């Protein structure tokens, strides 16, 4: 079976490794072009390209798959099956129709729930107790193709997008390599998704990092876990950006302070203050934070250097100065 693998980020790497480990004939890997990353904006290859290169698999990085040349290149490879894992481009009919066994997608949710670009983050943000991975046969609609296999996974109270994503990536890889032989043998009857059950999640942006302190403590804490490592959670104090790296909900807090006010909880000791921020309902305990341009600090370290932080009011970014 000649297989082309489409994928880009770290989430896709376990699936590629699993296919290699099971001896599938991967004739090409298609991934996004190299892009500048980090503060230095140095150009870096996607994680999938690095993994494919180490395995000696040819890599294609077309800027777009909509061009006739890109389609012709893939057609010339004569794939029997295409596997897609977090690729980053929508596949059009010209590509979906190339392989006789179709295009299979590994999606990290229990479809039809949480179609879209950020299902791992959405599951944590919405307070789901479980999620999972779906292997589906792709069509031209977003995450709407028939389901071939699913597996569920719990969401733990301390899960972040990083920890949950790692588990789902491994589960998806295992499910993928077990599903492909059964699909190729005709042992799976695709199950159409129930459109009445479909929900959608939007992609995250850098603007999502700004905390809305009028929301409840439980929701803010979930959002920050869902957005770890990116885009994170931050607010502004005295015109300076401050990242909030570890938050815990404290829903029983009922003080008079308005949302966004930095407080010291009554159960604090002089040597170990418990730093918290009032919200629209309850408060969030802050274990670690980072001022822009500084290193991350524990709450007690931060307060030793910034004692006036207690009583401050955090909020959105200051308006730009108009000359």
What does this structure look like?
The chain is of the alpha/beta class. The chain has two domains: 2-201, Formyl transferase, N-terminal domain (Rossmann fold, 3-Layer(aba) Sandwich); 206-309, Methionyl-tRNA Fmet Formyltransferase, Chain A, domain 2 (Roll), CATH 3.10.25.10. Helix content is 24%, strand content 26%. It contains eight helices and 17 strands. It has helices spanning 13-21, 47-54, 68-77, 93-96, 119-125, 161-184, 217-226, 299-305, and strands spanning 2-7, 25-30, 35-37, 42-44, 59-60, 81-85, 103-107, 115-116, 130-137, 147-154, 200-201, 234-237, 240-250, 262-264, 275-278, 283-291, 297-298. The strands form four sheets. It has a seven-stranded mixed β-sheet. Strands 12, 13, 14, 15, 16 and 17 form a six-stranded antiparallel β-sheet that branches. The mean pLDDT is 94.
